Amino acid sequence: MNHSSNEKNKIVECLKNSLRHSVSAHNSQPFQLKYFSEDKIEVWAMRDRLLGEADNENKAFYASLGTLFESISLSLCKLSAPYDVALVDMINIPNEIELLSSIFLVAVFKIYPSQSRTDEDKELCQMLEKRFSHRGEFEKLKYELPALIDLQSCRIHFIQNKMDKKNIAKIYDEINYKFLSKKNYAKELYTWMRLFSNHKNWSTDGLNRQALNLSLIEAIGAKLILSTFLHGVLKKIKMLKPILSEMHYTAHAPAIAVITGQSTNAFDAGRGMMRGWLALTKLGLYGSSMSALLDTEFSRTKILTYVNSSDIAIYGIFRVGHLPADKQFFERIRLPSEITFQEIRN
Ligand SMILES: Cc1cc2nc3c(=O)[nH]c(=O)nc-3n(C[C@H](O)[C@H](O)[C@H](O)COP(=O)(O)O)c2cc1C
């Protein structure tokens, strides 16, 4: 497609912003975009940013690809001439990440002029820069939440009943503990996090202590818990479970938001997760994702019974509420666009 150079620059800006504002599981930020003159986008991924233990079926990886796609689609609403993005091809990657090249192609997208951008798209586009995670305590709700919000491709259900929140908190703790008590998972997490400023990759992305909002004491605690020796000892003396518990935060959150939909595909789930999260932002709510609850058949089925929906899939689940007034916010650092973006002109 022939664009004026002004229009082209705006599309490039949208793509860079999408990379900045889309979310990725564990904040792994694995993607690089190559944008070609004919409006084709190749999405490549960096193997060393994948999480073999935490995501051994690559579901979170494809969900992250879906959140990137949705962010691109929504951010294109900013342009005065409306555009949208289509999925042209998606490549299935093997579960064994060692089999992949250091950088590999995962999908091809195409930008096209579109006359059908909806008001919902435009409103959610405005939320892209306002969405942040908040993983601590929330303030009380300033207004009543509806039981359900209907969006174009998904729905948000709010669980506010005390007993239901407590039950979900229990299930969440059980699943989290199962994961975190695995020695290899703790090891992977430890090598992934940058807890101290002398780490060689401290400022590369959003996984350092500052971006994770951890105090120095909390970082020392995390180092001790995740280090293999203490991890084993704590597990043996049954101290690991109470240390890892998020019971209080989950059970006392003003609400648990469940985003549901009709597709069982991870890419669609990621799209719905992003859309739902932005709709929560529009309501003035911050969220802490609790994706571990989507990892077992038992927890998925159980959550669906709480929301009484005809949808068959859960795209995302968050504890949500308002940000405490005194909360100082650190935006998670993103990979620089010199690493994640390349424009290729013919
Ligand atoms: C598929 C997927 C699963 C996620 N699961 C979790 C989760 O279980 N816990 C969590 O705290 N954040 C989770 N996130 C959120 C990201 O870690 C987070 O949004 C991202 O690192 C960007 O940080 P920000 O939300 O502060 O901008 C998930 C994101 C995606 C795409």
Question: In words, what does this structure look like?
Answer:
The chain is an alpha+beta fold. The protein has three domains: 137 residues, NADH Oxidase; 105 residues, NADH Oxidase; 74 residues, no CATH class. The protein contains twelve helices and ten strands. Strands 3-4-2-1-10 form a five-stranded mixed β-sheet. It has a five-stranded antiparallel β-sheet with strand order 5-6-7-9-8. Helix 1 packs antiparallel against helix 2 and helix 2 packs across helix 10. The chain is globular. The model has no long low-confidence stretch (mean pLDDT 90). The structure holds flavin mononucleotide. The site of flavin mononucleotide has 20 residues, from helix 2 and strand 8.
Average pLDDT works out at 90
Order of helices and strands: HEEHEEHEEHHHHHHEHEHEHE
Distinct ligand kinds:
flavin mononucleotide
Number of domains: 3
Number of DSSP E strands? 10
Uncertain runs with pLDDT below 50, 5 residues or more? Answer: none
Q: Compute the CA-based radius of gyration.
A: 20 Å
Distance between the termini: 12 Å
Number of helices: 12
Provide a brief overview of the structure.
The chain has 346 residues and is α+β, with helices and mostly antiparallel strands. It has helices at 5-21, 59-75, 119-127, 162-180, 183-192, 216-226, 228-236, 240-244, 247-251, 266-282, 297-307, 337-340; strands spanning 31-36, 40-46, 83-90, 103-113, 148-150, 155-159, 255-261, 286-289, 313-321, 341-344.
